[in-house]
Amino acid sequence: MMMMTMEGMMDKAMLDDIIRRLLEGKGGKQVQLSEGEIRQLCVNARQIFLSQPTLLEIKAPIRICGDIHGQYQDLLRLFEYGGYPPSANYLFLGDYVDRGRQSLETICLLLAYKIRHPDKIYLMRGNHEDAKINRIYGFYDECKRRFNVRLWKIFTDCFNCFPVAALIDEKILCMHGGLSPELEHLGQIKEIQRPTEIPDSGLLCDLLWSDPDARVGALLSVDESLVCSFEILKPVLPASTSKLILKKPPKAGKI
To answer: Is the pLDDT score of 235 beyond 70?
Structure first.
């Protein structure tokens, strides 16, 4: 499988070499990718994201992972324990960058795997895949320090194309944030046009930002990672298919 883009072609050998170098970055050492290689990852991945729907429809079994936030060593351990693509399928719920020291390695490895195995690994958008947020919380500074602001803008163009929700086996609805009072049917998510920035309000903002409130509706929380609310969910999914809403764990007082 070869990927043709305006930046050039990424073949299997090139992707495998990038993945190999990234996987060697254990112990906290920086992985040296060139600006051109990273730019190609962003542009190729962007095209794949746009070729797949805004609401992903995925089959189980699949491993579902929450925030990474630049903790690259945690990501490597996750693959070590859970299996490396394509031997295992993954859905990531967003927030790959900011806070941690190695956001570039984190997002580059995930993009490389996405290009190499587009139907084995899925990357959803979190609220930190937004220029307004990662301009403040570390990713902008990391790009500027290690490369330049131009590369950060290329990442922004890629982030603006990420899918924003996933439905697993027509039963488990996944998003980074939570439900929206504007969400009446799942077709509304499919209609969200990309590329897009994250607005300050509305459906897309809620999918990436909202957290459940135990004072509203019937809420069941299991280990702060599975959130089920049948009272809220009924208007969104048919009763025969509505089972779970899965989102990233809430973090009180943090973005």
So the answer is: no
